[in-house]
Design a protein that fits this description.
The protein contains eight helices and ten strands. The strands form two sheets. The chain has a five-stranded parallel β-sheet with strand order 3-2-4-1-5, with helices on both faces. Bound molecules: S-adenosylmethionine.
Length: 229
């Protein structure tokens, strides 16, 4: 039997990885990484010497066939991304889907999750907004349909979560302000688990004013959580 592990890695703080994840990364025959240079840091820290190859959105049919051949050959493979849980707004969904297409529910090949850090759940877990049901949008489109999605987010009864880049943070806050009541509670999480981790929660107007006054803080990685209507 061969195994294909989908392994979560830290979203910043390199300590945020499970013992099991490290063991698996050490023991598999090959690790597929979104960017091998990024993953090398994790490998150095935990003295992982497993062979690394890249797998990302540019990967070819040839790479897919190579992965399938290795699995047929009873090799174990792990998939990781630059940070967090692979396939969640990250490359990897295609290979997982291709493996089901190729092997179906063949018990000889198992696809196994190794859970761990994910920016969406980390942000949601400290937002204080209801989370038994929530809507995750990943990255919003940059242009076409963007405003329609903001309108939808502000109409949602459930908590909404999305990823945003620093270049578009101000625009995102402007759009939220345009469509919601000024006191609609939102939560912005920045650089979670890292040195400059910061969380700002308040009415949309208040949060926007915070970033207008502290433009130096519009840096790093962001998750935005919007409370339901
Ligand atoms: N698969 C990853 C996960 O499970 O968290 C998400 C990958 S997605 C390409 C990267 C985006 O996630 C960033 O642009 C940012 O919006 C968010 N993100 C990742 N790490 C973060 C962090 N440490 N703090 C805040 N947001 C983060």
């Amino acid at each position: 039997m061969s195994k294909f592990f989908v392994v979560a890695t830290p979203i910043g703080n390199l300590d945020d990885i499970s013992f099991r994840a490290i063991e698996i990364l050490k023991s598999v025959d090959l690790v597929l990484a979104e960017d091998t240079r990024v993953s090398k840091k994790l490998f150095d820290r935990y003295k992982i010497n497993t062979k690394l190859d890249s797998y990302n959105s540019f990967s070819t049919e040839r790479k897919k066939n190579k992965i399938i051949d290795l699995l047929r050959d009873k090799k174990d493979i792990a998939l990781i991304s630059d940070a967090g849980t692979p396939t969640i707004s990250d490359p990897g969904v295609k290979i997982v889907s291709d493996l089901y297409k190729e092997f179906g529910n063949n018990p000889e090949i198992e696809i196994i999750p190794i859970p761990g850090a994910s920016a969406v759940l980390s942000a949601l877990s400290v937002s204080g907004f209801p989370s038994s049901e929530f809507i995750f949008y990943g990255f919003l489109p940059h242009k076409k349909g963007r405003e329609t999605i903001f309108k939808e987010i502000t109409e949602n009864k459930k908590t909404s979560v999305f990823y945003e880049s620093p270049h578009r943070l101000t625009k995102a806050l402007d759009s939220l302000e345009k469509f919601c009541e000024k006191d609609r509670e939102i939560f912005v999480a920045r650089e979670l688990t890292k040195m400059y981790e910061e969380k700002i929660r308040g009415g949309v107007k208040e949060v926007k004013e915070f970033f207008d006054k502290n433009s130096k803080k519009i840096r790093g990685e962001f998750v935005i959580v919007v409370s339901g209507k």
